[in-house]
Amino acid sequence: MRMRHKHRKSSALCCSAGSRWSLSAVVWSLVGCILIIHFYSLVHHQEEGEAQVRLSHFPLTKELEEIEEENFQIQPRGKRSPRAAKRRGGKRPSLIDEFLDDSSQIRLLFFPDHKTAIGPTKAAANESGYFYPGRLWLDTEGNPIQAHGGGIMYDQRTETYYWYGENKEGLTYQAHKKGAARVDIIGVNCYSSKDLWSWYNEGIVLLGEESNVTHDLHKSNVLERPKVIYNDQTDKYVMWMHIDDENYTKASVGVAISDSATGPFEYLYSKRPHGFDSRDMSIFKDDDGKAYLIYSSEDNSELHISLLTNDYLDVTRMMRRILVGQHREAPAIFKHQGTYYMITSGCTGWAPNEALAHAAESIMGPWETMGNPCIGGNKIFRATTFFSQSTFVVPLRGMPDSFIFMADRWNPAELRDSRYVWLPLTVGGAADEPLEYNFGFPLWSRVSIYWHKRWKLPDGWQRA
Ligand code: GAL
Known about the structure:
34% strand, Tachylectin-2, Chain A
């Protein structure tokens, strides 16, 4: 009893001292918290201010400050596409399943119809010059632009931009039950423009082959991702492209040449560069006139980069394996203030996936992966490269920090109706994701691709 009493007494004492102590602890903790919050908000505001200063530094983002939110209304379960649900074995289909399902009720969100087409023949005065990623895009004659998996070359002599890409006008079908959706080769289309918005159709500059089944360009084969560069020494325009058979087992690159940007291009040959399989590819011409081929290899598990010969018609023996084991494709290289950058996609066929940005001091590597460059929209938009796949990054003359990111929003049910997603890309500020080799502070500038439902280049940007 005594013990218990003593205990109770002491515990009572302890308790009252404790409560006094804990009261002051609470008060001091509160003061501490307020101070920390105050300090944090000070720093944060300062950072925000800096970020704004940094961002407003770019002429493009000044015009594009508003990052829009695209609110996809996910429909109640019953209303979602039965076909997409079937593909998921009865499980609730994801937005990507809906995207891939041509009978989906939300299809128009991804592939808006003719009513909202853009282009010089269609745009109202207040819409002229505006890019609407994903909308049908018409040329100067009012026809939908057919230049998929494309790339753009600026021709100094004519001060004109040329857009080369796959003409996918044909019927979409599967060569085999489990084969990828395809269209027959028609050829490579070329469009010209002074402002990157209104495009004149220069026609098919490299024609597919109708009858000779042994020809690389026979319609039953695959011609993808054509890119053109100009060779100052030979005064020729050189086109590189992915050449394959219908099963994607040939896995080669093809080369064509022309005296003029608008063709006709003469097809020269195809090969497996350095004896390796080569699928998605691109070429890059550096400031010093050297040009490079970059291609997905070893079953798309890595990329290879190789210096081209001086005439750009072949690869040299100088080749490096990069991003080994990372399974990337759809490479798009560009250069900013002496650093090389590249955007790639994952390997999921026509289905969209997350983009990654990479950087290197030397084009031959090592290349480091920086993370997903997509900003704005919503989470699913950022995780699917805005439902599209990279194909090229266009430098803008007179705007050294700004680029246009060109991507394809593939429509595997109707490949000819695949759309173009062009968005502003800027380089600047510290990268905000940890690098793979580097546990310290990221060394590279951040690459940002901003989602916009509608955007425009600043007026008179060509004269900047
Ligand atoms: C993608 C590739 C496209 C096309 C497609 C066929 O991975 O980027 O260019 O080849 O596969 O399924």
